[in-house]
Amino acid sequence: MVPNPLIIGDFQIYWLNGGNFRLDGGTMFGAVPKVLWEKKCKADAKNLLPFTNDVLLVKTPTHNIIVDTGLGNKLTEKQLSIFKVTSPWSIVSDLADLGLSRQDIDFVLLTHCDFDHAGGIVMHDAEGNEELTFPAAVHYVQKTEWEDVEQPCHRAQSTYWPENFNLLKKEGRLKIIDGELEVIHGVRLRHTGGHTRGHQLVEFTSKNETAVHLGDLFPTHAHANPLWVMAYDNFPLEVIDRKEEYFRHYSAMNSWFTFYHDPLIKACKLDWQNKIIDTWPSV
């Protein structure tokens, strides 16, 4: 069952199951000592923490929008074991629960192209054939991000998988942007860098209400301290700078910050000291 939406003016934000997995606590908190981060999230005996890959569905009065695509259904048994997947990807059935089909999605907004965010761009059908999960949707990616998809460095090769992207150009459903773009009225993309070279945020504004999705700059509520960054971040000092900038900007707007990886809450609001003052759902 898909949880009730967060309402932002005329927009409805739903969280769909993009597959859950477990990750090492040290990689998620980088140089932060375990004695500090474990006060916020308890690791198991193997130092693993549970995380979601929650795909955002944003319903506007005119369009249906997906933000990131989850793990997808193409992982092998070996990959499922390596990445410790605990809950399979179920975006298609979640959409059906809301009365929507794959063909009803107009835009897919990719914060970046790591496999846990881009794995659901292409799916396997019942016969095991590859097809675009959202065949009618235009997929938006930053120019520098797509450059790294096409020519990944040694580090990126382990997370930018060609099978997640090959059909985008072939089917003509890729839109490469450079910087800032308003996709439709009230939905804006901004290049951030930091986590990856071409990472971008998504801002939603309707009737003077705002929500912002910072992707892996702000993966969970436990990362509200701007200095708490992940070992996965390619440019950690940029992440710190961008978090400080965006936390100030969007907190002043009383904005919701939405999460992709947080197993406990889906969104929060911050005060001027980056303290959580409200959560969705309420806890």
Essential attributes:
seven-stranded mixed beta sheet, 20% helix, 283 residues, Metallo-beta-lactamase, Chain A
Would you mind describing this structure in some detail?
With 283 residues, the chain is of the alpha+beta class. 20% of the residues lie in helices and 29% in strands. The chain is built from 8 helices and 19 strands. The protein has helices at 25-29, 34-37, 77-82, 91-97, 115-118, 143-150, 166-170, 236-252, and strands at residues 6-8, 11-17, 20-24, 48-51, 54-59, 64-67, 85-87, 107-109, 122-124, 130-132, 138-142, 174-177, 181-184, 187-191, 200-206, 209-213, 256-258, 267-270, 276-280. The chain has a 7-stranded mixed sheet with strand order 1-2-5-6-8-11-12. Strands 13-14-15-16-17-18-19 form a 7-stranded mixed sheet. It is globular and about 50 Å long. The two termini are 20 Å apart. The mean pLDDT is 96.
The largest pleated sheet is described as: 7 strands, mixed
CA radius of gyration: 18 Å
Order of helices and strands: EEEHHEEEHEHEHEEEHHEEEEEHEEE
Q: Count the beta strands.
A: 19
Instruction: Give me the CATH superfamily.
Output: Ribonuclease Z/Hydroxyacylglutathione hydrolase-like
Class based on secondary structure composition and strand pairing: alpha+beta
Tell me the number of helical segments per DSSP (H or I, 4 or more residues long).
Answer: 8
What's the CATH topology label?
A: Metallo-beta-lactamase, Chain A
The quaternary state of the protein chains shown equals single chain
Average of per-residue pLDDT values: 96
* Overall CATH architecture: 4-Layer Sandwich
Main CATH class: Alpha Beta
The 3D shape can be described as globular
The percentage helix is 10-25%
